[in-house]
Amino acid sequence: MMNLIFLLQDTIPAAATTATNATQAGKEVEPIRFFEMLMNGGVMVIPIMLLLFFTLYIIIERAIYYNKVAKTSESLMNEIRLQLAAGKIEAAQITAGKANTAEGNILESGIALIGRPLSEIEGMMEKQTSVEIGMMEKKLGWLGLVAGTAPILGFIGTIGGVIVIFHTISVEGEITIDTISKGLYQKMISSGLGLVVGVIAYSAYHYFNVVIDNFSLRLQRQVIQFITAITTGK
After folding, report:
1. Looking at the domain assignment, is residue 7 inside a domain?
2. What is the number of domains present in the chain?
3. pTM over 0.85
């Protein structure tokens, strides 16, 4: 009797394993095709993909712009300080203009008013700083809009897909695991894609704002150095 029990214990798991392997062997695992999977996500995938390309365009365009204008140079400030100390105001203005940066534009606006009251110089430099910061913040609002819109579009696509699934079930009068699981995975693609696009836009928006804040602080220091240079001659 005991031998029979031991024999069954050895035979049943082996049979189950064999059956499982046979079942798995009978099913071929299809490779995941990324583009095809996206196309199965429904119509909402199209506007979300457009938002993704738009987001990438804004990110690249702003990154190139910041790399060009958002620079502060101690050598530029030192050169202008030396020229002002030597009384070469026009040369200092030309030097600031040639920098072709936000810092250079702000310094140039202040140099152009040397000889006027200090309050006018400071006021002009503050206005120019506001203009430069405004130019840097340009288009960032679009990133904030995409960050809020893309996930919502994804959820709308998923909800619409679920509605279609349950409508089909109500019409056909039968429920199958394959129908529900396949439909849900396809429709949730839009939600996943929408969240990915939203995260990219959200991260870029806040990263660029950090860049602008840091640059604004550096500009304030440069303005203080400039005011000190024209008032003390150092």
Report:
1. no
2. 1
3. no
